[in-house]
Amino acid sequence: SEIVSIGFAGGLDPKLETGDLIIADSVRETHSETGIPSSESLLPLDSHLLGQALRLSFRDKLTIKSGGLVTVDTPACSREEKQKLYRCYSAIAVDMETSSLLRLAISKKIPFLSVRSISDSADQELVDFSHCFNEEGEISRFKAGWHVLTNPSLLPKAETLRQASRFAAKNLTCYLKKWVSHSH
């Protein structure tokens, strides 16, 4: 058996565009206290699965790149945060879950692959909704709605991200259909 983790990621490499697919060839975790990567923050990936993922070919125009992925505790919303992660971690994309999933797979000795679709580019500012989440990690619709109502300039950013996420999901779905048909 194997685990193929899918989802969205923020672009750190300025060359990445919305909808590009990233196959992680390395995964690092941020260190909240220092922000400086250490050798322990680099998690190993299954080279066989990585090779399989990179060998898939498509008729559709999908941009697929492999590179480093960094997992963070809080969203990287600003250009400055993304630039810092790009420099410090030599990563091309950022997400919030891959390292935890990979650690579990390593502990269970299950081969692991991470495929991410870029939902926001390196220069795209995100709306920070982190203060709208409760202790269980669930978003408060009231707080989020109030935040948008009191900051109407956020609406165009939210709409842009919604459209980008749909496009990113479409590309990810296309890749996964091919992966499933190829591996079974």
Number of helices: 5
User: What's the overall geometry?
Assistant: globular
**What is the alpha-carbon Rg in Å?**
17 Å
Helix share, percent: 25-40%
What is the number of strand segments? 6
Tell me the distance between the termini.
12 Å
How much β-strand is present in the residues? 15-25%
Q: What's the helix-strand series?
A: EEEHEHEHEHH
Helix and strand content put the structural class at alpha/beta
Oligomeric composition of the shown chains: single chain
Low-pLDDT runs of 5+ residues are none
The averaged pLDDT comes out at: 84
Largest sheet: 5 strands, mixed, barrel
In order across it, which strands form the biggest sheet?
Answer: 1-5-4-2-6
What does this entry look like structurally?
With 184 residues, the chain is of the alpha/beta class. The chain has 5 helices and 6 strands; from the N terminus they run E-E-E-H-E-H-E-H-E-H-H. It has a 5-stranded mixed β-barrel, surrounded by 4 helices. The N and C termini lie close together (12 Å). The model has no long low-confidence stretch (mean pLDDT 84).
Q: What descriptive keywords fit this protein?
A:
22% strand; 5-stranded mixed β-barrel; alpha/beta
